[in-house]
Amino acid sequence: MARDAAQARDIAVRIAKEEGIALAVKSKSMASEEISFNDALQGEGVEVVESDLGEYIIQLAGEPPSHIIAPAVHKTRGDISRLFERKLGEPPTDSIPQLVATARKHLRAKFLSAGMGVSGANFLVADTGSIVLVTNEGNGRMGAVLPRVHLAVAGIEKVIPRMADLPAFLRLLPRSASGQTISSYVSILTGTKRGGDPEGPERLHILLLDCGRSAIIEGKYREVLKCIRCGACLNACPVYTSVGGHAYGWVYSGPIGAVLTPLLIGLPEAVPLPGASTLCGACAEVCPVKIPLPDFLLELRADARDQGLKTAGEIAGMKGYAAIMKRAGLLEALERFVGVLSQFFSKGNPISGLPYPFAGWTERRDFPAAAKQPFRKLWKIRRGVRE
Ligand code: SF4
């Protein structure tokens, strides 16, 4: 087991060297992203090829994943065609089956010559020592059984006690991840190739990552380790769907990233993330394991304040906001003032190019103009309430 990312990289490199590996094929694993697995092995001269289609695309593009289960969701078929043209010398196409066939053609040769297959683990079953992979592409299974060596990289929270517990998780994961009752491939891998087995690895290594998880278990955020990485909270989040995964700056994005990242890399390194939420609660509603994500986001904001990580401007802004929200008359007057001001400048159109200190709001997209009449005024008119 690796205490931290540096130790995990050292262990992975040592295994690759001891096994004499020159080429590894890897299936999608967020845990391996956490420890910068590819950089570590490639730094020691081991070629690592991503075999999940989305991961293969972003590896060619030199980008990190932008979604837990759909790493290249931010790319169009045109982007991918141009990428394959540039990196693989393939002719342009707008046919998705053609693009998939191209990736398969290039990956097949890698599968057949790789010395090591690297996978994550959706679950690790303690009473049988099994690795469970839940995929839709079959690359995870092929990478785990074709090469001579199999290395699985997973966080310690992926361990479940008994095989009898697995069906409950297998019901939850595909339904929340991709809306399927069961994914195309569910592989339960136990040990190495035995006598009479037609295929399977001769050697198996399981690299367990602590990397901050033991500290989380002991604290008030322990429930976050129930996450099964289904990605449902990302899909439901209005912030994630507007800004995309890369805006979160590290491996995990969306609501789970806004909670998990500060806990794994430290709140000072990720202090804006818990603030990047409207607290609408959609994430908690869809989460199959009922992690109280909005409560944790609020708790992390309080931690940031207690640790002195909030700027003077943020504290003053929040105090001003609280003062206004406590006075209904003042709020209403302000709403009318903003409505008139906004209409005056924008003439009813979305606002672009705001000056400093608001410039960041309109740097990449327009800001909607405030309504002529505030909502509460419209509500009163509609209900026939006289002021
Ligand atoms: S927090 Fe819940 S919804 Fe989000 S990825 Fe984890 S299990 Fe899925």
Characterization of this structure:
The structure is a single chain. The mean pLDDT is 94. Helix content is 45%, strand content 11%. The longest helix is centred in the last third of the chain and has 19 residues, at 328-346. The protein has a five-stranded parallel sheet, sandwiched between helices. The protein is of the alpha/beta class and 387 residues long. It binds iron/sulfur cluster. Residues 68, 176, 227-233, 256, 286-289, 291 line the site of iron/sulfur cluster.
Oligomer: single chain
Structural class given helices, strands, pairing?
alpha/beta
The percent range for helix content is: 40-55%
Stated plainly, the CATH topology of the largest domain is called: Rossmann fold
Number of helices: 17
Average residue-wise pLDDT? 94
Q: Which spans have pLDDT < 50 for at least 5 consecutive residues? A: none
Q: How many domains, as an integer?
A: 3
Report strand order across the widest sheet. Answer: 2-1-3-6-9
Order of helices and strands: HEHHEHHHEEEHEEHEEHHHHHHHHH
End-to-end separation: 68 Å
Looking at the structure, what is the overall shape?
elongated
Q: How many strands appear in the DSSP assignment?
A: 9
What is the CATH C level class of the largest domain, in words? Alpha Beta
Tell me the Rg in angstroms. Answer: 25 Å
Biggest sheet descriptor: 5 strands, parallel
User: What CATH architecture of the largest domain would you give?
Assistant: 3-Layer(aba) Sandwich
Taken as a percent bin, the fraction of beta residues is: 5-15%
